[in-house]
Amino acid sequence: MPSVSLTVNGRAVTQEVENRTLLVELLREKLELTGTHVGCDTTQCGACTVHVDGKPTKSCTMLAVQAAGAEVTTIEGLADGVKADGETDGLHPMQAAFREHHGLQCGFCTPGMIMSAVALGEANPDADDAAIRHWLKGNLCRCTGYHNIVKSVAAGIKAMAATNR
Ligand code: FES
Ligand code: FES
Known about the structure:
With about 160 residues, the chain is α+β, with helices and mostly antiparallel strands. The protein has helices at about 25-30, 95-100, 110-125, 130-135, 145-165; strands spanning about 5-10, 10-15, 50, 55-60, 70-75. The protein has a 5-stranded mixed beta sheet, sandwiched between helices.
């Protein structure tokens, strides 16, 4: 079995994988990072979106061996954790915006939505609603009707710009 070395959420990892192992399987089953979801396994729903070398990537569509040497960030890598002052739970501004603007119901699509949205905030801090809707066309939600997702992403992008994150 080949072994693959990569960086996940800032941590260097080396794992033995089969040639056919998908990146999402490496993340969920070997590294126990189950925040990355599998909705379709066929590159349609976006629930499995992570960042690979900074680019939003559907991790059900990439082999683990293709990620050798890459920097991967999952939803678990976005938050800072609890801050010492106890005033904030350290959520990434985009995560906080989804919570504040009710951008989720069951939450299944949310990790992928947020990873895509953060990438948009980095690529286009001036994205308007039309740009947000266009960017998120690869992410499906079965619950919310999307209006609150768009509101959340718009607020999250503003908050990212304001906090330099
Ligand atoms: S699980 Fe990867 S796109 Fe749906
Ligand atoms: S919040 Fe349920 S699938 Fe999007």
